[in-house]
């Protein structure tokens, strides 16, 4: 019984906000928003995506590896209301930052993605979890030369550069400063351009 009511509720709540509002909030054109919405509705007729559906859609893009962990982290970053659902608004707002945002906006978004428990800090464990999930997803055919310890080495390297005051966590300030100063970090960040 409860389930059904929830379902009815969600169709009522998730009429997309006016296109005009999304035009202001994102860097997409009206035409692009219409195309994105059509694609979104096609995959998710209810107007919202739950995590399982998100993982399923995502796995189609990375058949060569296991994308479920990364898709989980990504879903959490898109699910800004923390209600276990990603609406069209959540989706295009995130996408707009990833694809068209300024460097700072993109880095803020990446920080939020890495900050798995959303406490405002990135720990080495969190960064390792994300890196490992990216390696899993890309599969061995993409990075045949990557050994199992590669994500860990990658993270140790990153972390040393980022954790300026050596307190074992990276703050948003440290993250922004390191990434903007260091070409190599920015380059590895572009890893994500093709991940999304």
UniProtKB/TrEMBL annotation:
InterPro entries in the record: EF-hand-dom_pair, EF_Hand_1_Ca_BS, EF_hand_dom, Recoverin
PANTHER family associated with the record: CALCIUM BINDING PROTEINS (PTHR23055), KV CHANNEL-INTERACTING PROTEIN 2 (PTHR23055:SF65)
Domain of life the protein comes from: Eukaryota
GO biological process entries: regulation of potassium ion transmembrane transport
Domain called EF-hand: residue spans: 66-101, 102-137, 150-185
Name of the featured protein: EF-hand domain-containing protein
Physiological role: May be involved in the calcium-dependent regulation of rhodopsin phosphorylation. Binds three calcium ions.
GO cellular component, one term: voltage-gated potassium channel complex
GO molecular function: calcium ion binding; potassium channel regulator activity
Alphabetical list of Pfam families matching this protein: EF-hand_7 (PF13499), EF-hand_8 (PF13833)
Record's keyword terms, sorted: Calcium, Lipoprotein, Metal-binding, Myristate, Repeat
UniProt organism field: Oncorhynchus tshawytscha
Keyword Repeat: yes
């Amino acid at each position: 019984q409860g389930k059904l009511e929830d379902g009815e509720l969600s169709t009522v709540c998730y009429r997309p906000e006016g296109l005009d509002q999304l035009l202001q909030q994102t860097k997409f054109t009206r035409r692009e928003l219409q195309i994105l919405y059509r694609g979104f509705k096609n995959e998710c007729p209810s107007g919202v995506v739950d995590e399982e559906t998100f993982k399923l859609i995502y796995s189609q893009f990375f058949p060569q590896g296991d994308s479920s962990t990364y898709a989980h982290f990504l879903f959490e970053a898109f699910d800004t209301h923390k209600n276990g659902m990603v609406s069209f608004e959540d989706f295009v707002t995130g996408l707009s930052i990833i694809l068209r945002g300024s460097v700072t906006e993109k880095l803020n978004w990446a920080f939020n993605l890495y900050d798995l428990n959303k406490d405002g800090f990135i720990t080495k464990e969190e960064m390792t979890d994300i890196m490992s999930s990216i390696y899993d997803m890309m599969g061995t055919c993409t990075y045949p030369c990557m050994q199992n310890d590669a994500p860990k080495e990658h993270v140790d390297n990153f972390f040393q550069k980022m954790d300026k005051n050596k307190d074992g966590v990276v703050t948003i300030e440290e993250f922004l400063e390191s990434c903007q100063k260091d070409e190599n970090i920015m380059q590895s960040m572009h890893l994500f351009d093709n991940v999304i």
